[in-house]
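lol so apparently i was supposed to do this last week
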Amino acid sequence: MKICFTASECFPYVKTGGLGDVAGSLPKSLAGEDCEVRIFLPLYKGIKTLEHGIGSFDEIQNVPVRIGGKNVMFSVWSAILPGSEIKVYFIDCPDYFHREMPYTNDIDEDERFILFQIAVIETLQRLKWSPDIIHCNDWQTSLIPVYLKTIYKWDKLFENTKTLLSIHNIAYQGRFSRDSIYNSGLSYSEYYPGGPFELNGSFCFLKAGIIFSDLISTVSPAYSKEIQTAEFGCGLEGVLQTRSDDIYGVLNGIDDNIWNPGKDKMIPYNYTLKNIDNKLLCKKELLKEAELNFDENIPSIGIISRFAVQKGFELFYPIAEQLMKLNFQLLVLGSGENRTEDFFKGLKQSFPEKVNAYIGYNNKLAHMITAGCDIFLMPSKYEPCGLNQMYSLIYGTVPVVRKTGGLADTVADFHEYNEKGNGFSFEDFTPEVLLESIERALHIFKDSQTWKKIMKRGMKKDFTWKQSAKIYLDLYKKCRDKN
Ligand code: ADP
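anyway here it is w/ adenosine-5'-diphosphate bound
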């Protein structure tokens, strides 16, 4: 099967979050399932062409495209995705993509991704490559299904091409003013209150994609249901409900060459279920690095996160005083919203013997915290999939999470009576319930035999891409066979 994978980010070229990880790893697993996959990405200024062996693709240069009233040109560059034989095509358009960050709040943000999507289709035409499936991801590529069924409907090359739209986070929808329809080249006739292109007075790329794509997926089964409700749908629940039969949830996988306690190069000691005691040595090193005293009987709690409303850190503020009376050490790594950064900086200042907070991005420290902590905390308000809880589970770091989205699908609440569960999870999004859950985890931690059993249940889990790639392949087949 021929799969065209289009995304706005892909590891190792450019990554701002989970989508980058998925785009960099799912295609590799699909290739192992007998798929011919080609990836399409914008050539952002930050992508290091020399380092990644990205070269100009001479056959497709200076292609003119009309975006609104402007004449724009794009060219194509290409490379092979490291660790695979997958071709990656980069859409080069310096006017649009040579900005400080991949995503901007600039006035022409819509134009940037309109150009990208049209360029993907125009490139497929010039390559004369007819994919069975175009796998689109998030709003930055969600107009492709619309284009195929409207402006490019005439082209026989796409006669049998179907589209799958994956939603990685429904909160990001690509909403622009009505004028943006002109930029897209699409018809105003679909723009009216409640119509395919309209959402609360804006032109919504994601809504259009949800309506025009052949199938839709999200990055966990629980999230696929949640987004069809008013609490989680961010205004798109209604349109999602109309496509309910076509929505599937596929849990993201993790790359076990990178996240694997048995061979992780970024942690001081490797360990598996057989030499699990090495985890304690990782804890010792981590605390040394964090300038906190080591005591194996004091549980260490880790947080690694973007600081965004989604992640639920507001729950901490009202319970900080009670929380800090409990016996634990806290290691925080993250950046984002000022109030959360300030909160954790403040905790570190007030409780230097208990708390260390690193504000910023640090991949090595992320691995060390994942390996060295006893408990991992993730009280998300919503979580489409979440990777950190999966990393924690396989590193034997027991997660305490809110039961939502991918967290609900991966963390099973520990139960004293039936000896099941690989972590602690709570339903009510309230500070009191978070506090209770942390207390519960700290209490069980004292019973080291029970704790080890919880750890081991997590470490035995298989979250590799192999399983999820098979599920995607089935989805592609369903999509291909759809009328
Ligand atoms: P999201 O995509 O919503 O940010 P995920 O849990 O799906 O959340 O993925 C986050 C990824 O980013 C993980 O690989 C995590 O380890 C990494 N990460 C987040 N913040 C940091 C940080 N400050 N330093 C290093 N890695 C981080």
